[in-house]
Amino acid sequence: MFRFLHAADIHLDSPFKGLGRYENAPEEEMRNALRDALRSLVALAIEEQCAFLVIAGDLYDGTKKDIASALFFSEQMKQLDEQGILVFIVYGNHDAETQLKNMRWPSNVRIFGSKKAETVELEEIGAAIHGQSFGKRDEMRNLAAGYPEHIPGKINIGILHTALEGHDDHEPYAPCSLDDLTNKGYDYWALGHVHEFSIRCEDPFVVYPGNLQGRSVREIGEKGAVLVTVDDGILTIERHVLDAARWDSREIDLSSVASLADMDTKIQHVIEDVAVEADGRLAAVRLTLTGRTSLHSKLQRDELDIADEIRVSVHGMGEDVWIEKIKFETSPAYSVEEIGKRDDAVGDLVSRLADAKHDKALVADLKADFAEVLKKLPSAAKANGSEIIDLAKEESFDSLIEYASSYLISQLAEVDR
Amino acid sequence: MRFRKISLDAYGCFTDKEIELGDKDVDLHIFVGANEAGKSTILEGLGDLLFGIPTRSTQGYIHPYANMRVGATLENSGNNLTFLRKKGTRNTLLGIDDEAIADETLEPFLSGDRELFERMFGLSHESLREGGQHILEAKDDIGRTLFEASSGVASLGKELVRLEEEANGIFRPKASTTTLHKSIAALKVSSDSAKDAVHTVKAWNDFTSSLGEANEQKQALSDRRETLSAEVARLERSKRAQPKLILLDQKLAELAELGEIPNLADDFSDQWEKEKSARTSAIATANGDATNLERLKNERLLIKIDNTLLTLKDEVEVMDGLRSKAKSGEEDLQNRRTEHQEKIGEARALMAQLGLVGDVEKIKREELPTTQEASTLRRLSKQNDEIKTNIENLRGQKSKLESALISLDAEIGTLGALGDTAEFRRVVNGVKACGDLEQSYNEAHRRLQRSEELLSQALTGMKFPDEKSEELPTRIAPTEDQIKKSLEELNTIEQNIRLTRDRLKDADDAIQLAENDLLVQQSQGAVPSHQDLSTARNTRNDTLGQIRSESSTGKVIDAPLINSLDEQIVQSDSTADHMITEASRVAELNASEREIAEKKELKNIQSNSIGDLDAKKSAWDEQWQKLWDQNDWTPPDPTEANDWLTKYNSAMEQFNQICEYKATMAEAGETIEQNKSVLLPLLNSSGISGASDWDRLPMLNETDRILGTMEAEITQLRSLKQRKVGLSGEIGEARTAIEALEEKFTDNVANWGDAIASSTSLLSNTDISDIDDILSFAGELGSALKDGESLKSRIVSMTADIQTFEDKVTSLQTNLDPDDLEGTASQIAAKIEAAHDGAVSAKEKADDLDRRIEDAGITLEKSRQMEKTAEDEVKRLCAEARVENANEVSDVIENSRLKTDLIAAISSIKEDLANEGLSLDDIRSEIETVDLDGLDARVSDLKQEIEDVETEREAAIKAEESARKDLEDIQEAEGSADPEQEAQQDLDVVITNTERYLKLKTASRMLRWAIEKHREEKQAPLLKEASLLFGKLTDGNYKNLRVDVDDKDRSYLIGVKNDGSHVGVDVMSDGTRDQLYLAIRLAAIKEMAIKDPSKLFPFVGDDLLVNFDGARESAALDVLCDFSKTTQVLIFTHHEHLARVSTVSLGEDNFMLHRL
After folding, report:
1. Which of B496, B483, B641, B480 is nearest to B1067 (CA)?
2. In this predicted complex, what is the ipTM?
3. Does domain A2-243 sit in CATH 1.20.1070.10?
4. Is B174 an interface residue toward A (CB < 8 Å)?
5. What is the mean pLDDT of residues B1055-1062?
6. Confidence band for B691, pLDDT divided at 50, 70 and 90
7. Would you say A296 and A333 are in contact if contact means Cβ atoms under 8 Å apart?
8. pTM value?
9. Best mutation site among A322, A335, A342 for testing chain B: the one with the most B CBs within 10 Å?
10. How many CB atoms lie within 10 A of CB B197?
11. Domain ranges in chain A with CATH number 3.60.21.10
12. If DSSP codes are grouped into helix, strand and coil, which group holds residue B1147?
């Protein structure tokens, strides 16, 4: 009987995205979350007396040249080495080209090469481990096809970073079909690349453990690794949640909310819920405020201040929750169409706003405004994927005017109410 | 939509209140009600009626929410709807049968939501004032002005400014301190930090290699250093060990020579000396103790003891006690006897004092008065004295009062009888009061004259029709406000005339200049026409064409023809050039002419303006004349109007004073006349005579003084008589008191007799006045008798004590030697005591010696034991030193010490050598291998080599440390803040700011654009209507509104007055701006009406006309009356006068008055 741990997509050197600055934010705790998760992984391997640990690609995010993460990883691997626990790693698309590859690893770490699939046989426990790293980021070959056939009489484990037959949110690297994998006669396919935990097949096991620690609001919910127990040739698996911080995203419907105080109360209830679900971990949560509400214009007008107030309020609750972002997606309580139909000056103004995008002079002015601000922006800000900045870059004035129209109408409708 | 009836069935303070609004075309309703009458309730009720009662209505304080009802009959385009509104969230409309009706039923009557109704169709005094203020704030933004005023959206401009300010706060292209700039700067800093913080794997590997190499080198050098150091140590050891080995061998030889010597302990010598001394000391002590014992035994044998006496110890002690008592009695007995005799004599003398006879011994103390009896006797005696004294005092007092009464009677006699002065006094006071009044009258008259002078001065130069002050109050001059306002208007007109004349002059100058330019240009000659130019060009081209044509046909062209053609071409070209030059001049001429035309046009405008202004001035003159005409005042020159006002005010002040003084005089005169009619008869009857009524005043003053004296005497007499009555009373009281005391005296004397009789028979004849002395003697006698008895008893006791003592002595004598016992009892007793004491002393001494003999025996025994112990110790030490004789012990001790020293030296050397780390044999062997002669040189060489190695090793250590530090730096950086994470967060901040900026910038641009578009389209019709209304609302003061453009191309609104002068909104009065705001609002509603009159709500005004002056108030009512034909107008006010003004201005048929 032996056990091993299967983890993937650790992205150890990846910064957290979207965490704005504000006072009393739990920055350090958040920054350490990835490492704390890795510490938990190592502790679990030791506690369960695992024979080895498998990391199925994207150990690094690949964005950094800095060795700090590698050193940390090396330290952790040394701890496993002291316990006689081996580590098998393949590189995936993110770390295929990382410069951290050249790090000298402790002797228990084995990294599979990228030229062809390699096999390590562990005689003592009767296991054969097959793996192949990505040689380049956009590996579009079917690597699985090149994996050796299973070695009879041994527990065969394949480590592969792959999108399988494609995944909506992931690049289709090292594509292969489930059949390609199951036909190899292996006992367990330790996959990486997809960040959500999923068992694609149970006989044999084809498993994505998901990533070890969520890094942005796109990676919400529990994260961890899979513990595999092999007893008399029978495999059983158990998922372990190891993330140190939890990402969450909540939509808060303000339809029935008439005051900022009521909104605050509602948000506090949500935050309490987030904290309960995070189960003692630090939680980073994105709040999206929605619904038709009389607060709409105020929220639009004072969104930065209100966002700050919400953060202060949440901080005051004493919960370990970081407000990652607050999105203001409420709509006005009144009908924009009705306002536009009025015969008075407000109705006139509102109906005119719909024609704004056809006014060449206005568009030219906006173009000049955007050019000025884009000129000042660092390239990183322009490339960050902000929807609004992208619209400005693309000179998509229609969409921006739509944005602004909605804002203005809400203000016009609320002025002097 | 119009209200035809409003029903406040159960709403706010109203119950079953119905307001009928009729159905006239002129649909103006004025609701007048004092505060608290429910004006605000109706205003709120109209909104609740049309759009529903809010959840938290404030109007449910009388009627519970469930019962609240407000209703109406509405009319729109000929359709009527009567309904009620109840509170709730659904089905809140009820029909006349109180059944629910569908919400949609009301929709055709509504043209918008509550917000539109309240914002656009509702206007209060406060919002009107606020709107006027916003016009002022938006003065250079016509679009904003028109939008805000017409829509009722009061703060659109502010919203635009806010958007722009917030956007500018985030980013301005040329600024450097905006939020976005700052966040970009922060991002740059953190990005740079992140870059600086990068440590590559290569660097790590390089540092690791460096560390390994330095470590290996350091290790090799350390090894070499160890080898060399070991060799140096070996050589230096040999060098050190050789002399020590030689010394060791020498000491071993000396030890062998000493032979067998007992090993004595280190302290043996000390022990020996100590024991020897102890033995000598013990022998001496034992001998001394034996001598002492013998001496004590001899001393004891000499002592004899009388045991008989010792057995009588108790008896002797008793006798001793009796002896001291008897001795004390013998010494005092005589004194007491003498004292007793003296007391008897004393008693006897007192008896004589008290008149008693006989033997002292026979007088009994019990017969003397007791203390209590003596106290009673003394009290009676004292009372007797007091009564006698009081009687004497009262008699003296009575005598004094009787004397005073006699004096008082004499004084009263001198004052005699005085008559009544009251009537005289009234006359005098009355005449004097008349004198005071006359003085007041005269003073008022004096001041009146002064005021009349001042009035006369004040009126000087004033063009009254008749400059008589008496006429002043009958005519009302124009008020100061009217005059000042009129002057202000004149000032404005004249200023505008001056300004326009200046402009006209400027225009004349400009025209003159332009015409001069034109003349100069025209003087440059006639200008060829375009026809000429065209002809010249055609001729040239024809000639050229001719030449080309002929050349092409091969025709020979002769030289003269060619020359001629050439000339033609040159001439044509010259003409054309000239023409082109001239054409340019023509253009300039045309421009000059146009400019002149424009300037003339401008001049015409200015001339027209002058005309307008002159007309305005004439109108003003007429108005000025009218202002004065109505009260028959000659109007002053406007330049002197202010002086006129000052004089007029001063005159009015004096005139008022005059009136006041006249009133005072009239009042005083009247009172004087009244007083005279009463006083004259009195005066005549009083006997005070004089030439006339008022000449009597000096005499009256003298009478007044005499009357004063008389009145004082009357007062004094009254006081004396009152005092006499008091004195008589006091004398009577004294007499009664004396009688009472005399009676008391008699009783007291009787009580004395009883008391003395019951007290003692010894004093029965004593007088009451002697009782104190008698009682004193009696007391002393009692004491003397008592002391005598006590002394006698004491003498008897003493005599008994002496006898008891003598008996005891006699008893003891029988036990003692009779030869020694001669003399008095006391002497014998002394001898017995002495003998007894001697026997006791001998016994004590003998006992002491016995104890000391026993102690000396024990001491001697101990000394002998110690002597033996010391002897045994000496023998033991001899045995230890292996000698029989104690005298040989010292030699043995000396040899033993020598041996010990040698052994210690040998051990020390061996130990020393052992520290070299090798055995003695190994050291001997090692020394044999070393060349001792060349040893120092060899050590020096080796040390030099070690130094060299050490230098190299230190370099290696430094290299190692450097590499380790590099690695540590990387590891430390790993543990600190993550710069890349910080840069990522700064990036997020930049993005957030940028997004916000893009939204705000777009929004502000769009809002400005939309307002401008709105203005472009709406401005003309809106302004046209607003101009009309503004003119009416200002009671014709303003002709129209106009939009002007300033030098920065900003359009702004101005009012054009009747005289053509322009007034910017910034110089308009608050009231005029209010009227402007109202004009624009009403114009906007009219614009809506043009589109669809059914889409109008009634216009509701709340105290709208508060700040309108009389004329404009009437004008506004006219406008609203007219406006009510377009849409219903409801005006609420608490000013009652508005009802009157409306009636006067509009006539009763043109509005409906509703009183709340």
Report:
1. B496
2. 0.72
3. no
4. no
5. 85
6. very low
7. yes
8. 0.47
9. A342
10. 19
11. 2-243
12. coil
